[in-house]
Amino acid sequence: MPPLKQQRHEQETTLKILVGRIPENIVNGLIYRNKPIDYFPALPVLPKILPSELLEQRPDIKAAEQNLLAADVNLKTIKATYFPQISLTGLLGFGSNKLNTLFTNSAETWQVDGNIAGPIFDFGK
């Protein structure tokens, strides 16, 4: 039985510190013990539906919303990897072995490249 009394004492002391009361006052009977429920004042009635603006201000709701948006972006990125990627590259310029013929019509050069890449094997991912 002494371990239970010690545990009760520790719990009461912790509770007293949390509620900001002096431990001796609570132990000496200044708290409400063995009182009927009608003795205590009634709690205020909360509205049945809380305004959404109030809920939007809660930090946990904001964090959950941001996590949902981040997950949506990640999902779109993952879906995009299943489609082929097409790229076109163009090059236009001048090329010559001699500096004095570099900017002539015969020195013009151009190149167009295309590339298509896509997943063939994803190994069940």
TrEMBL record:
Pfam families: OEP. It comes from the Bacteria. Keywords: Acyltransferase, Transferase. The keyword Acyltransferase applies. One of its GO terms (molecular function) is acyltransferase activity. InterPro entries: MdtP/NodT-like, OMP_efflux. Belongs to the outer membrane factor (OMF) (TC 1.B.17) family. PANTHER family: OUTER MEMBRANE CATION EFFLUX PROTEIN, OUTER MEMBRANE PROTEIN-RELATED. This is Uncharacterized protein.
